[in-house]
Amino acid sequence: MKRFVSACLASAIALAAGSALAADKEIAVVVKTVNSTFWQNVQKGAATAQKEADGYTMTFQGPAAESAIADQVNMVENAVNRKVAGIVLAPSDPDALVPVLKKAWEAKIPVVLIDSPVSDAGKQYYQAMLSTDNVKAGELCAKALIDKVGTSGKIAVMSYVAGAGSEIGRVGGFTKYIKDHSKLEIVGPFYSQSQMATALNQTTDVLAANPDLKGIFGANEPTAIGMGRALAQSGKAGHIAAVGFDGNQDLQGFVKDGTLEAIAVQGSYQMGYLGVQTAVKLTKREKVEKALDTGVVLVTKANLATPEAQNVLY
């Protein structure tokens, strides 16, 4: 009996040691949702970086929806409790994630943010931030729309999650540029919660309520897809100038057939790749840049096939 208990105890210790060793080399990647090809492309980049990092493992998680902020907080908290080597996080909310980032900081776990920032209260708790300059990206989309519709008339803004860091910059940059460079009236923004079906229904309603609409902006992947489908279903594709954001196959198709004038495409693969690569460097106490712009490319039918566009489309 004593031998049996000793054997079981030895096995438990070995399993615990193995688990600790695994966590000690684990990079936990937590994104806004796993139900989006944008974040799936981030995962591809992260997986490539993990394979290049000798001896490191990676976990990849995200809530079912971007609006499930409490679920994301729990995922990060679980990673801290596992004592992972590093965390790569795309925060869904600039304030809600700060307390758990503080826990990671107190546990001496390096954190790399991707895509979206946290509020100033959390700045000391992460070591690097990799993202699109969303203000500039929003301005780029606004300029593209003004170039098509002119400086007077009415446009609509179809946004995603109110208060998300990327949304504040992107839609804020878009709106300010429109106000500073035109007399266009803005309808909205409307918030889809990053749900394609919600965006489709919202856009359908906006089109029906505003027959004089000249242009429309869809501020992220699921929202832009829903917007494009609403334009197509209403027979207004090609008659209302539309600019989307992100670059999956659906959105590329809308650019090809003229439903969308342009899409602003982020370096999603680069976010994942550089995020994990930076986290690994931090675990080795190597110096990294505090902020890195991962870039954006405005893709139109004219440049869709160019290497610059193909490098970011997914």
Automatic annotation (TrEMBL):
Q: Where in the cell is it found?
A: Cell envelope
Output the superkingdom of the source species. Answer: Bacteria
State a single Pfam family of this protein: Peripla_BP_4
Name the GO cellular-component terms.
Answer: cell envelope
Keyword Signal among UniProt keywords: yes
The protein, known as: LacI family transcriptional regulator
Q: Does the keyword Ribosomal protein apply?
A: no
Report the principal subcellular site.
Answer: other
Which stretches make up the Periplasmic binding protein domain?
27-285
Q: Which InterPro entries match?
A: Peripla_BP_I, SBP_2_dom
Which residues are the signal sequence here?
A: 1-22
UniProt entry keywords in alphabetical sequence: Signal
Organism field: Azospirillum palustre
Single GO MF annotation:
carbohydrate binding
Q: Which family does it belong to?
A: Belongs to the bacterial solute-binding protein 2 family.
